[in-house]
Amino acid sequence: MMVARRHHFLPQCYLKGFARPKKHGKTHQVVVFDRAGKSFTSNIINIAVEQDFNRVDVEGHPPDTFEQLMAAFEGDLGPALSRILQARNLRNEEDRATLLNFIGLVAIRNPRFRETFRDFNEQVLNQLMNLVTADKDRWEGQVKKMRDSGYVKPDSPEVTYEQMRDFVQRGDYRIELNKGFHIASELKGFDAILPTLFNRKWVCLTPPAVSGGFITSDHPVCLMFSDPALRGKFFGPGHGLKGTEIIFPVSRHLAVVGAFELKEDEIQLPEEHVARVNGAVAACAERQVYAHNIDFNYLRRDNEKPRRGAELVNDLDFRSGGSVSPSAASRKPRSL
């Protein structure tokens, strides 16, 4: 039996909402804008995908066990997204719950979060290794404990204190975390943020009839401050923090914004505010933005006019990782 190894961290049933069908709907393509300064058309099967992203190494289970569980969830997600897009609202409670679960999974299970988590653990372990190797007696005492407890096999090669100290000080190594460890940590995080998503009030946003619509990215959950007094603080926005909002593009024809202070509503945005949403999505992208075509608008800052999507690939702010300011991204019509 073949084991799936190419795992999408954004499912194709979601990406289809921004794609153009080809070959009688058998394939779907999007325009990709890469921060490296490249723009190209791609089949959605080849984007937002990583080798073994969901791999687990658990005795008695195939390595794609978790991938199969995610596929089962996506089997429910696809029809729910279709119904939401047809209705252009979140009035169906089951479909609303499915979408909020999806937003929670995407927010916590993505390459950026994994790298941040890996880097944090690497910094902690680096400090620990510096402490352990700061003194020869301390190092040799730790080695003895590891040997006595069985962590170090009797036939393991001898490493002198001087060799280990030099290795640690040079820093010529990278700490990697087991994929299963990542997944377990992500699921704990998901359990923590999911109630906050249900506690937010959600507003459905639709573009004008004549519009390039919304775009998405490889990091489409845009969490930011909505309260100007909180911007620039030493801490970042948190999922449970008041004065924050989440912008999430559901398809090119629908986006949702969630905040604790909002009133549930369904609003058709003027094109300038569609551009603001797209600016926020571009700003939050890790590496790539995905669009139906190049005819969308995006807005970087309050004092500028909206730009055409075709300009994004050459936008130096986007290429450097700073597409828009939070104030431009988060401002909505007064009715919100």
Mean pLDDT: 89
- Largest sheet, strands/sense/barrel: 5 strands, antiparallel
Rounded to the nearest angstrom, the radius of gyration is 23 Å
How many strand elements?
14
Write a structural description:
The protein has two domains: 6-109 and 200-330, no CATH class; 110-194, no CATH class. The chain is built from ten helices and 14 strands. Helices cover 40% and strands 18% of the residues. Mean pLDDT is 89; it is low at 323-336. 32% of the residues are buried. It has 336 residues and is of the alpha+beta class. The protein is globular, with a radius of gyration of 23 Å. The termini are far apart. The strands form four sheets. Strands 2, 3, 4, 7 and 12 form a five-stranded antiparallel β-sheet that branches.
Features:
2 domains, 336 residues, five-stranded mixed sheet, globular, 10 helices, alpha+beta
Can I get a quick summary?
The protein has 336 residues and is an alpha+beta fold.
Write the layout of secondary structure elements.
Blueprint: E1 6-8, H1 12-15, E2 20-22, E3 27-34, E4 38-43, E5 49-51, H2 65-87, H3 93-108, H4 111-132, H5 136-149, H6 161-170, H7 179-199, E6 201-206, E7 216-217, E8 222-225, E9 244-251, E10 254-259, E11 265-268, H8 271-284, E12 288-291, E13 297-298, E14 307-308, H9 316-320, H10 326-330
Parallel strand pairs: 6-11
Antiparallel strand pairs: 1-5, 2-3, 3-4, 3-12, 6-10, 7-12, 8-9, 9-10, 13-14
Helix pairs in contact: 2-3, 3-7
